[in-house]
Amino acid sequence: MSTTTTTTTTAAAAPPPAAGAPGVRRRRRRSLSPGRRLPAAGLIGPLAVLALWAGASAAGRLDPGAIPAPWTVLRTAGRLWTEGTLATDVVTSLRRAAYGFAIGLTAGVVLALASGLSRVGEALIDGTVQLNRAIPTLGLIPLFILWLGIGETFKIAIIAIVVYIPVYLNTHAALSGIDSRFVELAEVQGLSRLAFVRRIVVPGALPGFFVGLRLGVTGSWLGLVVLEQINATSGLGYMMFQATNYGQSDVILVGLLIYGVFGLVSDSAVRLVERRVLSWRRTLNS
Amino acid sequence: MAPHTEQLTAPAVRLAGLTRSFDGRTVLDGVDLEFPAGQFTALLGHSGSGKSTLLRAVAGLDHEVEGGGELTAPERVSVVFQDSRLLPWRRVLDNVLLGADGKEAAARGRAALAEVGLAGRERAWPSELSGGEAQRAALARSLVREPELLLADEPFGALDALTRIRMHGLLRELWKRHRPAVLLVTHDVDEAIVLADRVLVLENGRIGLDLTIDRPHPRSYRDPLLGEYRERLLAALGVTEDLA
Ligand SMILES: Nc1ncnc2c1ncn2[C@@H]1O[C@H](COP(=O)(O)OP(=O)(O)OP(=O)(O)O)[C@@H](O)[C@H]1O
Ligand SMILES: [Mg+2]
């Protein structure tokens, strides 16, 4: 109990302080955190690419048949929106993605809870999902067409499967990876099983759930694109596929742009919710 | 499965012939021990002597451990662990109130936080607390339940020496006000002597030494009269004076 610790501080090669001062000035350690975020950091890169594209087009360095100028793309988008079927195509695509995503998310969460909170549930569900995961979902397309026909149901089903797998896997891993010290704490504090699940298991699993959610969002767009480009008679992908036949690169770019906006908006929305819900986490990026 | 009988009335702890073993290796070999309500007891022993095993048995936390014997413990038991074990996703007050429901619970939680010197930190996240503050919050959490028995497994083991001394004062003060029976597991002989009214040494799976420390509180580490107790305890632990 009576140990005396003597600390000798040697300053690292700091420049000698101004004349006369005998003390050693100590430089602050360099922070290993990357530092403060630049304002609007997420926009700088895309804007630079856009500027490059516009500049190259204006200078005539790009083949307009392969990569049309940004303004051509915008004009085409306006024309398609007012005169063509772009509006209905967008709505069709959004509806597919939204239904598929909602079903997949619900299924993923419900299955993860059932298998994460009960041993019977785990025995029934976990192995099955792991098996399902081993089969690339897009490989199921032929079978699903055979079962469900080539209509909307089949597309929604495929998207739902693409979404539920990462949601399930990450949520289940988080639920079953709960710190045993917290289980002990719950017992000591006399929590009921329900209170234990509500106050400890579920909040503890939220970070894992959000990882799954973000993968699920990405997956739903990916599934959408693939499905619409190979087996659709409406929707954005169909529009782009048709444009290929007529060599309309501007229409294809409009489609890609809209897909990009979908992806960006949905990912930002998830991030926003995540930051709110997980505000207790202090990370390098906070 | 270890039996854990609970008696609703008598708030005293009684162990009779308590045994616990892991994979056939006996750790507790028939512990007989009794202590009355409100007594402050410290439990010493070598690392691996089974102190935590004993404490977990009394807390009823050893579901899967082999063993037998008789065990009576009060109904309201609180445990303070070596780590503060605050849930990172609950604010400090909500952590303190974990498992305490009802309308007046929040008021009691605030009062407990004030008692441990954390008034005003109710809305902080656990990650914003220092080690000592987190451990004080854990103490507050254990108090809210108004325990008849407070079990603490090296609760100050992770703290620096200065904070430890402060925490000793705080624990003793809280004990004086609430009067739970306390079983404090520690490997620090001085901590045991300064805090407890009775010190037990766990040795070869049994209570090897049972020493009542008859000195007034608050005690000082430098009290020469405590030296005698220290020597006896160190001898029981197999440490000779020149090694200590
Ligand atoms: N869950 C377990 N599984 C197997 N062996 C265990 C388990 N828990 C404890 N033991 C063994 O029981 C013995 C007593 O452990 P215990 O944790 O009670 O010691 P301790 O007195 O608290 O030691 P320390 O002072 O280091 O905390 C040790 O030899 C340990 O290896
Ligand atoms: Mg221990």
Automatic annotation (TrEMBL), chain B:
<dbReference type="InterPro" id="IPR003593">
    <property type="entry name" value="AAA+_ATPase"/>
</dbReference>
<dbReference type="GO" id="GO:0005524">
    <property type="term" value="F:ATP binding"/>
</dbReference>
<dbReference type="InterPro" id="IPR050166">
    <property type="entry name" value="ABC_transporter_ATP-bind"/>
</dbReference>
<dbReference type="InterPro" id="IPR027417">
    <property type="entry name" value="P-loop_NTPase"/>
</dbReference>
<keyword id="KW-1003">Cell membrane</keyword>
<keyword id="KW-0472">Membrane</keyword>
<feature type="domain" description="ABC transporter">
    <location>
        <begin position="13"/>
        <end position="229"/>
    </location>
</feature>
<keyword id="KW-1278">Translocase</keyword>
<keyword id="KW-0067">ATP-binding</keyword>
<protein>
    <submittedName>
        <fullName>Aliphatic sulfonate ABC transporter ATP-binding protein</fullName>
    </submittedName>
</protein>
<keyword id="KW-0547">Nucleotide-binding</keyword>
<dbReference type="Pfam" id="PF00005">
    <property type="entry name" value="ABC_tran"/>
</dbReference>
<keyword id="KW-0813">Transport</keyword>
<dbReference type="InterPro" id="IPR017871">
    <property type="entry name" value="ABC_transporter-like_CS"/>
</dbReference>
<dbReference type="InterPro" id="IPR003439">
    <property type="entry name" value="ABC_transporter-like_ATP-bd"/>
</dbReference>
<dbReference type="GO" id="GO:0016887">
    <property type="term" value="F:ATP hydrolysis activity"/>
</dbReference>
